[in-house]
Structures are given as structure tokens and as C-alpha cells.
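Take a specimen:
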Amino acid sequence: MYDINYFTLIKRQKEKNKMARVVITSMVVLIVVLNVVILSIGFVVFNKLENHIKNNQAYLDSPVTKAKVRDVAIMNKELTIAKEYLSTLMDASSRIKTASQINVNLIDHIRSLTPASTRFVTANYNELTITLSCFSTEPTDPMNFYNKLLGDERFSNVIMPGFTISESNIVTYSVELTLKGGE
């Protein structure tokens, strides 16, 4: 027969409960310690960030930095104005260079190449290109004028798109020519 001791069962039960309490207590202590460590690290990092932000804000608010920012803003404004002036001067330079191409000597030279019975209706120029609209009473004048312009060393790319002869034998035509550079 077996001897059953009821007190040993109670004693074993108390030892198991004691062990569970030790494990639970140590877990709680470990969690509390980890939370304290995490909060401490967070507090230190937060304070460092806050100090860094305060230092940066103090640097930005300092009169020296504000003066430098003002100087840079003024320089940017002056740079923008200088770029606009440069663009305007470059445009004016190209216009002056083009305008200097069309002078009295050139006009007199074109007149000397023009047949006697030819009259100019309009003369337009754009940079180095001159367009002449003419009429003549002689049917051969357009080709004579075209050939003279084509043979002249001052002009390049001479174009005569065509001509028309009216019932009254008046020939209307236009000639487009480009000045060679530096003339």
C-alpha cells in the first residue's frame, strides 16, 4: 500500500507558486529597467536635438547671419539686373552690327546695279537679309538685275522667286539677297 502524504502535495504546490512569483517579479523588474533605460536614452537624445536646434536658431537669428543673407539677396538682385543688362546689350550689339551693314554706300551700290527702267516699290531688311520689291517696263530687267546681284561679291544667296508681267507690259518682281559678313 502506498502512503500518501497530503502535506507534501501542498508543499510542492507552494514551491511552484513561489517559483512562478520569482519569474514574474524578475520579468516585471526587467521590463521596468528596460523602460527606464529607453526613456533615459530618449531624454538624452531629445535634449541633444533640442540644444542643436537652439544653436542653429541662434545662428540664424544672429545679426552677422542676417547681414550675410541680406548681402546674398542684394547680390542675387544685382546678378539678375546684370544678366538683363547683358541680354539687352547683346541684343543692341547685334542690332548695331546689322544696322551698320545697311549704309549709304551699300544703297548707292545697289542703285548702280539696278537697270534704268526698274523702280523700287519697297525695300526691307532683317539682320543681313534684304528684300527688294520692284517693277520695270522692260521684260529683261529682272534677269539682268538678278545676274548683276548674283555676280557681286558683296552679296550671297540671291533669290528671285519669280516675276509677273501685266497686260500693260509692266514687270513686277522681288529679289531677296543676303549680305556677306563684314561688308
The mean pLDDT is 85.
